[in-house]
Design brief:
The complex is a heterodimer. Chain A is an all-alpha fold. Chain A has one domain. Chain A contains eleven helices and no strands. In chain A, α1 crosses α3, α5 runs parallel beside α11 and α7 runs antiparallel to α9. The radius of gyration of chain A is 19 Å and the shape is globular. In chain A, 52% of the residues are buried. By secondary structure, chain B is of the alpha/beta class. Chain B is 24% helix and 18% strand. Chain B is built from four helices and eight strands. In chain B, the strands form two sheets. A six-stranded mixed beta sheet of chain B has the order 1-8-6-4-2-3. A two-stranded antiparallel ribbon of chain B has the order 5-7. In chain B, α2 crosses α4. The chains are: A mainly alpha, B alpha/beta. At the A-B interface, α1 and α2 of A face α1 of B.
Chain lengths: 314, 169
């Protein structure tokens, strides 16, 4: 019980401290490749601290959704971080770190964001929400299916157990089932966190935006929660993917030496994965909205093939 | 362009941003007497730009200031799409009759603490457009301007100097 609490606390604190840095590293990588300096790796920290210092301004006639949706998104992200094996694969007491629980928590934040977009009553907000829900409907089955494929050789759908089993046995990583499932997972992580080519996080221009369209009417502290909550989702999903792909260094228990190694390994893995993601983004343009379902259907097919193949392999 | 071509272009171009030392230390900007930049905007200021009736000369200079060569982002300033996300309202041009209400609405929709920056000669004294039937007044007639950047159009260096008085970086 105590060990579980320690692990949850370590996960949440680690992610909260690392996330702005991750965003800073990603933005700086991109800026350097584009030939300019950029705000530096600490700029997201400054942005968030500033936003928390500003008064939220809410439009007259807006309801409680505008106040509570950002907090719900933030809470769902924090719960997600507690459940995902970022640093340690110790199975949590009382709470199942189960695949289905993780996907439901993820969906809770998605719905909060979509309601917030509708709340503003502007054309942009509704448009962003409808696109966001469309992506969510296409993304969730792939997340379930690809992690299901990874869970088959282990015999459990608890994420911590999957990561632990993969770090012990190289054969579960280097086989077609695992590779297909991971490719599918990377595509859905990109879609879920609103990165290129599905959504462009640095644009606010006209009709292409999805995430930005929903948060257009929030300001001050509300915006701070929204931004931080969405960034934390990126850390959680990226951390889960890299720990599934490269599970070494993750602590098997809550011993402090192992946790220290796990923290160092996860920091390096997540920052490297983030810079690779940002570097790849320089080379690709945003997909036309009506072609995004094709990409996501492709990732679903990969996940489906992965599940089918697992019956042949194992 | 192929990916290898793009990689070669990135390697060939390197960094195009001017070094900070190339920026003039003394820029001709007018700061309102008694203006203290809000403490929480230190290091980070999002800018909402409002064209209240400009000839678009100032807009080209603003685009240059946020472009890769002058790169205002390295001082913590960024352009945003919504006044709700903004800390700084940057106004250009005379205030035309049609843009007076939208300008005031934008300033009102910006969460406190906020800073109003006026860019270009038109925003103070109406410049070339003074006396036109379409002009409702200059920006000072409608709101309190904290930092004014003179020039027709002002240089990107001056715009960056004005933003740096807010972010103090």
């Amino acid at each position: 019980m105590i060990d579980s609490l320690v692990v949850v606390a370590v996960h949440v604190v680690f992610a909260v401290l690392l996330t702005p840095l991750l965003l800073g590293v990603m933005r700086t990588t991109r800026a350097r490749l584009e030939g300019h300096v950029g705000g530096g790796v600490l700029q997201p920290w400054r942005d968030v601290i500033k936003l928390f210092g500003k008064e939220p301004l809410r439009a007259p006639g807006s309801t409680w959704v505008l106040t509570w949706a950002p907090l719900l998104l933030m809470t769902s992200s924090l719960v997600l971080l507690a459940l995902v094996p970022l640093v340690s694969t110790l199975p949590l007491a009382q709470v199942p770190g189960d695949l289905f629980v993780v996907v439901s928590v993820l969906l809770l934040g998605t719905v909060a964001l979509a309601l917030l977009g509708l709340e503003s009553g502007s054309a942009f907000g509704g448009m962003g929400s409808s696109r966001h829900m469309m992506f969510a409907a296409l993304v969730e089955p792939t997340v379930l299916l690809s992690i299901y494929a990874l869970s088959l050789p282990v015999g459990t759908s608890a994420l911590a157990a999957i990561v632990a089993a993969r770090s012990e046995d190289l054969a579960t990583i280097a086989n077609p089932v695992s590779i297909l499932a991971l490719v599918a997972l990377v595509i859905v992580v990109i879609a879920e966190t609103g990165r290129l080519p599905v959504d462009n996080p640095s644009t606010h221009l006209e009709l292409t935006m999805v995430h930005e369209a929903m948060i257009l009417e929030s300001g001050g502290r509300d915006l701070g929660w929204l931004e931080f909550g969405s960034w934390l989702r990126l850390t959680a999903l990226l951390g889960l993917t890299v720990n599934l792909a490269v599970p070494w260094g993750v602590a098997p228990d809550a011993a402090w030496q192992n946790l220290a190694i796990g923290l160092a390994a996860s920091t390096v893995k997540i920052l490297v994965a983030g810079s690779i993601l940002a570097a790849v983004e320089v080379f690709i343009a945003k997909l036309r909205l009506f072609r995004v379902p094709e990409l996501l259907a492709g990732s679903f097919v990969l996940a489906f093939l992965s599940v089918s193949a697992s019956y042949l392999v194992f | 362009m192929s990916i290898t071509g793009l990689i070669a272009l990135i390697a060939r171009t390197g960094r195009v941003t001017e070094p900070v030392s190339a920026l003039p230390t003394e820029a001709a900007i007018e700061v309102r007497d008694g203006f203290v930049p809000p403490k929480c905007l230190r290091g980070s200021a999002q800018v909402r730009h409002v064209d209240a009736g400009s000839c678009n000369g100032c807009e080209i200079e603003i685009a240059a200031a946020f472009g890769p060569v002058y790169d205002a982002e390295r001082f913590g300033a960024r352009l945003v799409a919504s006044p709700r996300h903004a800390d700084v309202v940057a106004v250009t041009g005379v205030v035309t009759v049609n843009m007076a209400d939208p300008l005031l609405n934008t300033i009102e929709a910006t969460p406190n603490p906020k800073v109003v920056v006026s860019i270009g000669d038109c925003t103070r004294g109406c410049g070339l457009f003074a006396g036109s039937y379409a002009v409702a007044g200059d920006v000072d007639d409608f709101t309190t301007v904290d930092v004014h950047v003179p020039g027709c159009p002002p240089e990107p260096e001056a715009i960056i100097a004005a933003l740096r008085t807010v972010t103090r970086r």
